[in-house]
Amino acid sequence: GKVVSFKGSPKLASGFADAALKRLEDKSISVRYREALEYKLEILRRDKVNALTPEKTQVELDKAQAYLEEAATLLNPSDGPWLFGQQRPTELDAHLVVMILRLQDVGRDSVVPDSLKQYGKMAFDEPSFKAVMGGRSTMYDGSGSKK
Q1: Would you say which domain of life the source belongs to (predicted)?
Q2: Which tens digits make up the pLDDT trace of 84-98?
Q3: Helices 10-24 and 31-43, interaxial angle, to 10°?
Q4: In terms of residue numbers, what domain contains 6?
Q5: Is 15 a residue whose pLDDT tops 90?
Q6: 61 plus 128 within the same structural domain
């Protein structure tokens, strides 16, 4: 899941945790805010800092690759360009295309089967997809600018 969609830096995740710890040092914050920060810290440690180990990342990459290989079997280009040979994209296409793009954006293109790379390129070239993405990457750099 989430492990695969990051560029793989436990350092980045621990930076977020450090920021939360620094805020917790402030004695003037409200009880509610303190509880929210403590919860956020717990989630960061559980889902990000401790999840981004090489072993756990490889397990998630293996799962993603198996899922994508299964999804590739749903292509039937002789009937239509989209999953199940459809002429127009389905809801599943919308999710799969974004997953492919995200994996490519984080440098994990190797888990995407060649047939899905071609399918993804076809989808990325669609005017409707270009309109939605507006030239942006799936990675947010904090600047608000297009990449």
Answers
A1: Eukaryota
A2: 999 999 999 999 999
A3: 160
A4: 2-49
A5: no
A6: yes
